[in-house]
Design brief:
The complex is a heterodimer of chains A (about 200) and B (about 280). Chain A has about 200 residues and is an alpha+beta fold. Chain A contains four helices and twelve strands, in the order H-H-H-E-E-E-E-H-E-E-E-E-E-E-E-E. Helices cover about 35% and strands about 25% of the residues of chain B. The longest helix of chain B has 23 residues. Chain B is elongated, with a radius of gyration of 27 Å. Chain B is α+β, with helices and mostly antiparallel strands. In chain B, strands 3-2-1-4-5-6 form a six-stranded antiparallel β-sheet, with helices on both faces. Chain B is built from eight helices and six strands; from the N terminus they run H-H-H-H-H-E-E-E-H-H-E-E-E-H. Classes of the chains: A alpha+beta (about 200), B alpha+beta (about 280). Chains A and B meet through helix 1, helix 2, strand 7, strand 8 and strand 9 of A and helix 1 and helix 2 of B.
């Protein structure tokens, strides 16, 4: 009985995923994948700030969030058109005139430097067209609103809402067995122009 | 049996996790969503709205030409400095800009050589923060491959990196002794270096800055302000700046524009590069 139920669930999930993928164009699939990675990042942010989790779990969430970024939060290199290495510092967040590394930002959230809050992202995410950087290496920018909710006097209120821009790297095209191409996106530098609230 | 139940539970959790994440991302603030859609979020979106391939939500007037006019007007920063003009005179100026775009069917082109990005940057020179402006242009490398390239630098004099006010002399008899004196002039008085050039010799600030960067004598810190200059509209020059505020009239917007002849435009480019 249970085995049948498990089989049914797996089949239902597979049909659901395939149906979704079939409806999308290759460009939309890339955008969808970027959206998924981006949602995952926001999901990790919420868990990092969640004090009901253990220290170990929250530390692991920092690692998981950093793994979504190019260089996994460390210094990284990309190859230019001459196939030479181009060196980069760890991915950063820039807020108008100040800048700090993603690792520092995540640790600040972990240490509740910004107070106790929950971060959510809007489901309205806008993408520019993907631009070719070099052979098999593409870049894009994602635009989104990030909401920060703070628990004050027993209710959640918006602390700030910031329009943010994030560079997306689309390198190392992976060819699947069926011949289709997938570009696993890696998140890059974030620029925050101003607070909306 | 317990193992199977555990597996089943895990499967259910993982099946519904993506749904939970997307549920978390639901946007309750409708104004914000409308604003986000209306905002000119990127220069690519600016281009699409300017050229009429995308309409700003709310600009559809049911009539194509009116919609186009409305769409173009929505790209102006409504709080821009009117330059002392009365409301009527300013609207007239805006209308003549819009007319020029529509009548000549001019498109805004991100790859145009008439688009310049002016970046006011902060560098560190000898441990001190200095402001230097970079001028960039887009270049086509090959089909579907573009890059930004540096075409000009200004502000090195103000930053105290080059000095053009003082002229220092190399002794008029130095040629007789194989210009031995240059060793002292250059090595003992490096701050006078630019003073030894001919009065007519131009200093290429871009080359100076790139040399300093290559020799690690200057460190880049941050771009403090970015403005685009577009000279591709017949009779007009305008600047685009990212305006950060709530509401639909935000993002990349035209924050200044002036009527200019061709000759005035070439002087404008010259000024953009120098000082």
């Amino acid at each position: 009985m249970i085995k049948n139920l498990v089989t049914f669930l797996i089949c239902a999930l597979a049909v659901f995923t395939t149906a979704n993928a079939q409806d999308l164009s290759p460009n939309e699939i890339t955008k969808q994948r970027v959206q998924d990675v981006f949602d995952e990042f926001i999901y990790h942010l919420s868990l990092i700030s969640n004090t009901s989790l253990t220290e170990f779990q929250r530390q692991n969430e920092i690692k998981a969030a950093l793994n979504l970024f190019i260089g996994n939060g460390k210094r990284y290199t990309v190859f230019n058109e001459f196939d030479e290495k181009e060196y980069h510092r760890p991915v950063t967040m820039q807020m108008v005139t100040s800048r700090y590394s993603m690792k520092t930002f995540l640790k600040d959230i972990y240490n509740h430097r910004y107070g106790k809050f929950v971060i959510e992202a809007a489901d309205v995410v806008y993408f520019d067209n993907v631009q070719k950087r070099s052979d098999d290496c593409y870049e894009a920018t994602a635009y989104y609103m990030q909401k920060c909710l703070e628990h004050i006097n027993g209710r959640w209120v918006y602390r700030d809402i910031t329009p943010q821009k994030m560079k997306i790297y689309l390198d190392n095209v992976v060819t699947l067995l069926d011949g289709s191409l997938i570009i696993p996106p890696k998140l890059g530098d974030i620029y925050i122009n101003a607070k909306r609230l | 049996m317990i193992k199977i139940i555990k597996q089943l539970l895990l499967l259910v959790i993982f099946s519904f996790l993506p749904l939970c994440i997307s549920a978390q991302a639901v946007f309750p603030d409708m104004t914000m969503e409308i604003d986000f859609k209306a905002q000119v979020k990127s220069m690519e979106e600016f281009q699409a709205r300017f050229n009429g391939t995308e309409r700003k939500p709310g600009t559809d007037m049911g009539n194509d030409s009116l919609t186009r006019v409305n769409n173009l007007i929505s790209l102006f920063d409504f709080k821009m400095d009117k330059g002392g003009l009365s409301k009527e005179a300013f609207y007239k100026k805006v209308n003549s800009f819009v007319d020029s775009v529509i009548i000549t069917n001019t498109k805004f082109d991100m790859l145009s050589p008439l688009l310049f990005s002016e970046c006011k940057c902060k560098f560190f020179y000898k441990g001190k923060g200095v402001r230097i402006t970079l001028i960039l242009q887009k270049e086509i490398l090959e089909k579907n491959k573009y890059r930004w390239s540096l075409v000009g630098v200004k502000g090195l004099s103000e930053a105290g990196i080059i000095s053009t006010t003082k002229i220092y002399s190399i002794s008029p008899v130095e040629h007789e002794i194989n210009f031995i004196g240059l060793q002292d002039l250059f090595n003992e008085n490096p701050t006078h270096a630019f003073g030894y050039k001919s009065k007519d010799a131009c200093i290429d600030q871009l080359s100076v800055l790139l040399t300093l960067i290559q020799e690690k004598a200057i460190k880049f810190d941050i771009v403090e302000e970015q403005v685009f200059h577009y000279l591709g509209i017949p009779g007009f020059v305008f600047t685009i700046k990212e305006i950060a505020r709530s509401g639909g009239n935000s993002g990349w917007l035209i924050n200044s524009f002036s009527q200019m002849t061709r000759k005035e435009k070439s002087n404008y480019i010259k000024q953009l590069y120098e000082k």
